[in-house]
């Protein structure tokens, strides 16, 4: 392995071009060595624009490159399983976009393939590598807001007119729960450090958008009578807040999952009749994510967030989608 971990990018998705690759370029532990597309010209243009040394005109060619250590997969959701397994079989570590798969069964298959190949498989929830989440967990543990009584979160954006968007293809794993609802679900599990028992979700399934859920809202029940209430959508104004309600105070994160500026990183604590801002140093979450993976690969240590966590998150997503379709409360199995 070279001094820096060498990454190959499997596709030219916007999340790769606008966020993950720039984050990798900022890393001292990683470098982007190659990018692949089924459209060779697109790969070459992207490589030139983003200062990537090598462009391939097929995914297979990238996986065959023995100099690549890690593959990043930003492909549509229905392709995650196939290409993660193929990357594992090629001996590559993998960072795969969220959600890891179309369901928990697929996620488990991917995890098994990675284990058999002796490689690491990580799900790309970049937000949780930001240091403010450790600060939030420490505030909760210190008793700053007392006992947690509930969590509220949302992630919405407005993009209904992009008719070619893969998020609007049902068979490809489209829909708001897969795309952005997974974040509130994930953060509640992270902060409570436990798994939900049941979910109830209502959704707007749009025939204009191949019957995917363009908007959804739900109740995620945890033991101890604590719940996450959330909404998510692709047909509503942009927002991504988080509120943790305690018996003695509230922690607010106005921009919980997206932190493009230093100001957007800050959190707020309300307790004892006072609301104060807690400043958090600006960190590129995508760089932090890549660096955490690099340390695990280089040092032979477990991932900060193991693949088993991704499987458990998929179980909740499975239950949410079933609840929305059947208009019923669904237990998380």
Automatic annotation (TrEMBL):
InterPro entries: Gfo/Idh/MocA-like_OxRdtase_N (IPR000683), Gfo/Idh/MocA_domain (IPR050984), GFO_IDH_MocA-like_dom (IPR055170), NAD(P)-bd_dom_sf (IPR036291). Residues 5-124 form the Gfo/Idh/MocA-like oxidoreductase N-terminal domain. The keyword Oxidoreductase applies. It holds the Pfam family GFO_IDH_MocA. Residues 133-252 form the GFO/IDH/MocA-like oxidoreductase domain. Keywords: Oxidoreductase. Belongs to the Gfo/Idh/MocA family. This is Deoxyfructose oxidoreductase. It comes from Paenibacillus glycanilyticus. The gene is socC.
């Amino acid at each position: 392995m070279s001094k820096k971990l060498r990454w190959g990018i499997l596709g030219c998705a916007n999340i790769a071009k606008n966020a993950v690759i720039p984050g990798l370029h900022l890393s001292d532990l990683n470098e982007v060595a190659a990018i692949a597309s089924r459209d060779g010209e697109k790969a070459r243009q992207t490589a030139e624009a983003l200062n990537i040394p090598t462009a391939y005109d097929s995914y297979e060619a990238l996986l065959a490159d023995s100099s690549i250590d890690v593959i990043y997969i930003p492909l549509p959701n229905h392709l995650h399983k196939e290409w993660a397994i193929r990357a594992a079989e090629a001996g590559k570590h993998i960072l795969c976009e969220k959600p890891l798969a179309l369901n928990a069964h697929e996620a488990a298959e991917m995890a098994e393939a990675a284990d058999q190949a002796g490689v690491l498989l990580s799900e790309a929830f970049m937000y949780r590598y930001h240091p403010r989440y450790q600060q939030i967990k420490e505030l909760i543990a210190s008793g700053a807001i007392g006992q947690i009584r509930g969590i509220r979160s949302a992630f919405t954006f407005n993009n209904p007119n992009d008719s070619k968007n893969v998020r609007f293809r049902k068979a490809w794993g489209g829909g708001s729960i897969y795309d952005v609802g997974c974040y509130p679900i994930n953060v509640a599990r992270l902060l409570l450090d436990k798994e939900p028992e049941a979910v109830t979700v209502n959704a707007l399934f749009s025939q204009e958008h191949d019957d995917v859920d363009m908007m959804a809202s739900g109740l995620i029940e945890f033991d101890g009578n604590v719940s996450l209430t959330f909404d998510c959508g692709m047909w509503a104004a942009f927002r991504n807040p988080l509120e943790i309600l305690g018996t003695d105070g509230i922690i607010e994160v106005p921009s919980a999952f997206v932190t493009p500026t230093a100001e957007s990183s800050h959190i707020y604590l309300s307790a004892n009749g006072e609301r104060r801002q807690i400043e958090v140093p600006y960190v590129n979450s995508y760089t932090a994510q890549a660096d955490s993976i690099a340390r695990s690969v280089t040092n032979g240590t477990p991932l900060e967030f193991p693949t088993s966590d991704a499987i458990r998150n998929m179980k909740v997503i499975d239950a949410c989608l079933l609840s929305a379709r059947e208009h019923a409360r669904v237990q998380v199995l």
